[in-house]
Design brief:
Elements lengths: L5 E8 L2 H10 L6 E8 L18 E7 L10 H19 L3 E4 L3 E4 L2 E13 L2 E11 L16 H5 L5 H20 L4 H9 L8 E4 L5 E9 L5 E4 L5 E4 L5 E2 L2
Parallel strand pairs: 1-2
Antiparallel strand pairs: 2-3, 3-7, 4-5, 5-6, 6-7, 8-9, 8-12, 9-10, 10-11
Helix pairs in contact: 2-4, 2-5
The structure holds biotin (BTN).
Length: about 250
Amino acid sequence: MNSPFTIRHYHQLASTNSIAMQLGMQGDPEYTVVICDEQTAGRGQRDTTWESEAGKNLTFSLLLRPFFIPSDQLFILSKAFSVAVCQALKNETQLPITIKWPNDIYVGDKKIAGTLLEHSFSGNRLICSVIGIGLNVNQVYFTSNAPNPTSIVIASGKTMDKEILLDAMLQSFYHCYECLRLGAAEKIEMPYLANLYRKDGYHPYQLPTGERFYAKIADVLNSGELVLEHNNGSKQLFAFKEVGIVL
Ligand code: BTN
C-alpha cells in the first residue's frame, strides 16, 4: 500500500506543532507530517518547553482534519495517538511502555515521550488538529528540570534507528485513526485503558491545593477527564489541571 503520509522533513524548526498548524491553515492535506532534527522552541504542555538534543530524538507533528469527531470529544485523538505510539514502541523495543494520562508515554516510572494536541477553530467549526510528539530515543543526558526523563537508549541500552520507529508509529497511528473514522471508537478506548500507567489499584493523587488522596482509575472520558474512584466507591471527574498523579 502507498503511504498515506506526506513527510516534510526539516533540519531545524522552532516547533513542528506550530509549522504543522500553519500548513493546516494553508490547506495542506490530512496526514501531513512535519518532522525536524532540531527544534529551537519546542513546546510542551502548560506553557513548558520541550528539551530534545539535536539529531538524537524524534520530534514530529501530524496534521489531521477529524471532522467526524464531535468537538467536545476530540481527546479521543490523543487516545488514538497514545495507543498507536504505545503499541509501536512495545513492538520495536520490548520495553514496558504505558500511557500516562493525560499526555505522556512512560517506560516504568519515567517519561519517554510527551504529546501535544492542538486545534484550530473558526467559530464552532474545526479547521484542523495537530498532534505532536517528542520521543526521547538516543539522548543520554537531560539538562532541563523535567522531573523524570528517560530515553529508549537509557531504558534498553540500545541505540535505535529513528526511521524505523517513525515508520512503526505512523503505520500504527494510521490504523487507529481509520478505526475512529469508521466509528469503531472501542478499538481505541479498550487498549487505551488497558495500557494506562497505574491502571490497577489505588495510587496517590494530588490536588492543586496540595491535598493528597488515594484513588484508582475508573475511566478516561473522550472529553479528556480522568474518572477516579475513591475507596468508598464514589467516583469523581478531573480535568487536566485539576489533579496530578503523585510519582
Ligand atoms: C509535554 O510533555 O509537555 C508535551 C511535549 C510535546 C513536545 C512535542 S515535540 C514535537 C511537537 N512540537 C512541539 O513544539 N511540541 C511537540
